[in-house]
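Section 3.1: Structural characterization of target chains.
Under the original work plan, the team committed to producing a structural model for every single-chain target entering the pipeline before any wet-lab resources were allocated. The record below documents one such target. The sequence was received from the expression subgroup and is listed exactly as submitted; it comprises 355 residues.
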Amino acid sequence: MRRLLFTLIGALIAVAASAQTSLPLEKGLPVVVKAAVGYVEIFDFDENAATFRATVDLRLRWEDLRLRRPAQEAKDPPRVFRGADAEAEARKIWIPDIAVANLAGDGAGPTDFGLRVFPDGRVELMRRITGDFSTDYDVSRFPFGGQQLQVRLVVRDLTANQLGMTFDQGDLDFSRAAADAALDGWNLRFVNLRVGPLPGWYGGSHATLTASLEITRQPGPAIAAIFVPLLASLLIPLLTIWLNRAEEDGTFNVEAFELVNVLIGGLFAVIALNFTVNSVFEVLESGDNPVNRLFTLNYITLAVCLAVNVLFGRFNVVATLFGNYVQEQFYHFLMWAIPAMVLITAASVILVALA
């Protein structure tokens, strides 16, 4: 008899515990969880791998009416749990299964855990996570464009019809970089929150929330190391046109082979610069960006100036076809037309990146 009584008591306790940890349905479906992400500390940003290492605070808030306390306790402060106590309490109640989807490498390091349960049934869960996060990286405006350091939260197991994520003004206020947070070479700005669906199995979808900390590069070092040499290398082929002069008899005051040697030296200089830049910023190798555009402009300018020097200075093609006077005047036109077109194009590339 005693054994049967203990069995019944154990069963009742198990049922009560199961009722507390099941999905709260008192307010209907979907259960709404408000999410926010605060950036506590940012250690580094690896542009080539498109990852950053940081410590972030995740805050989740929801209502579970099963946790309401009696009316006489309505004005009491919330019950606060930290560390091991919070983890123990979390095993007794329902906690949304929300994971960080873009943790990279070995995932998160040690996680701090906090829990607050309010008298009216509101629950607030805090998690402090340190880890490497993968993020989208855009090089289309390098080095002037901003980047987004993203933390992507996703609901596991439950569909969007069962569990949804959202945010309010309080979550926007919480989602920011800490006052003393800093990242070398970058300026930290605002955090944006965005919710959206993630396609799931069997026609279902899962709720997601993405927090994006906007950062803007301090472009001075990149301009000095990349753009100044790139613009300077553009002058090498242009000088081969400016330094030469067409005479009235169709001859040139500088031999073509001397200028071709200068062009070949300029070509090797651009190749070396291209290799150096791509070694440091591997992410720039593919895709459309201002650096690749200026390298392309350098190669095109070298090819055009080589063609001008060979066709005019070596073979006198225009003089043969149209006479010395036409060659002289046409060369004077090219002396200004080619540099003007090249410099205008280079300026346009930079201005578009700045816009």
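The two ends are 83 Å apart (CA to CA).
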